[in-house]
Every structure is written in structure tokens, then in C-alpha cells.
Amino acid sequence: MGLHSATWRIHASAVDDLNLLEDSLRWLTGDDCNLTVEKDKSWHGSEQTVLEATTKRKKAALKALARLGDEVLEGLLDEGVSRRIDDEKVMHVRIRLSNLVRGEIVIISEDDAVSVAKGQFKIESYPGSEPSDVITETILSMLNS
């Protein structure tokens, strides 16, 4: 067991460097990702672009999670992954965008008012197994390899 898919999403303003953000998402998700760029208007009416990198291959999704790095993965385990998992068996992670474009991963809390990249990891969990146990075992195996 492990992951079904991984998705990273960034909401960029009209003044953001889209090429830099695209490169950052490709680095974070891996070369085997489907990158979409959608221009739209924000809730307040200003122009925004939504960049989304998705991989639906299990091995690529595991690599995308591993790319967070040992220190971040250990931090996720220390704080308890169950609080990050929704009813759809998806683990949510937010990282600071200003660090991501420098190739650094910094997890932020939900109440930080900074630009973020939002990650979603669909956990491969079946009846009889708890999603938090599956992702914990997955992360521990990454850390021990």
C-alpha cells in the first residue's frame, strides 16, 4: 500500500513569475506529472492563475512525497498525520511558496497568511485499514530506506 496520486496546486497573482512557479512544481512533483495552467479571476475580481501538477502513478506519487525530505517527513509524523487526512483519504500539506522557489521545503500551519503550494496525497487505503496508519507506515519506510 502507499499512495494512489499526488497533486500540488499554486494560486498565482498576475505579478508572479509563472515560469519559476512551473519549474518549482515540476521539481516538487517530478518529471512524470501533468501540469495544467488555468487563468481565471479571484474571488475579489483580480486576475489569477492556478497551476496544478498531478501524477496518478503510484511510484511517482511516492517519489513526490519523498521529495519533501526526511526532516519534513519526520515533522509530519511528530505532529501526527491523522489531523491532515480528510474523509476522502487525502492527506493535505501546505508549504511556503517563497521557500519552494529556492528549492527548500517548509511546512506551514493553516493559519499562516503567506503564499503557499497546496499538496494533496491520495492514500491507498482499503476497508479494514486506517489511512493514518497506511501513510505513517509509508513515511517510515521512506525514512528507513
- Using only CA atoms, what is the Rg? 15 Å
Based on CA inertia axes, which overall geometry fits? globular
The CATH architecture name reads 2-Layer Sandwich
Rounded average pLDDT: 91
The main pleated sheet reads as: 5 strands, antiparallel
CATH fold descriptor: 50s Ribosomal Protein L5, Chain: A
Describe it for me?
- The structure is a single chain.
- The chain has 145 residues and is α+β, with helices and mostly antiparallel strands.
- The protein has a single domain, classed as Ribosomal protein L5 (50s Ribosomal Protein L5, Chain: A).
- It is 34% helix and 30% strand.
- The chain has five helices and five strands.
- It has a five-stranded antiparallel beta sheet.
- Helix 3 packs antiparallel against helix 5.
- The two termini are 16 Å apart.
- The mean pLDDT is 91.
Notable characteristics:
single chain; 145 residues; 5 strands; five-stranded antiparallel β-sheet; alpha+beta; 50s Ribosomal Protein L5, Chain: A
In short:
The chain is an alpha+beta fold and 145 residues long. The chain is built from five helices and five strands, in the order E-H-E-E-H-H-E-H-E-H.
How would you summarize the topology of this molecule?
Layout: E1 3-13, H1 18-29, E2 34-41, E3 47-55, H2 58-66, H3 70-79, E4 90-96, H4 97-100, E5 116-123, H5 131-144
Antiparallel strand pairs: 1-3, 1-5, 2-3, 4-5
Helix pairs in contact: 3-5
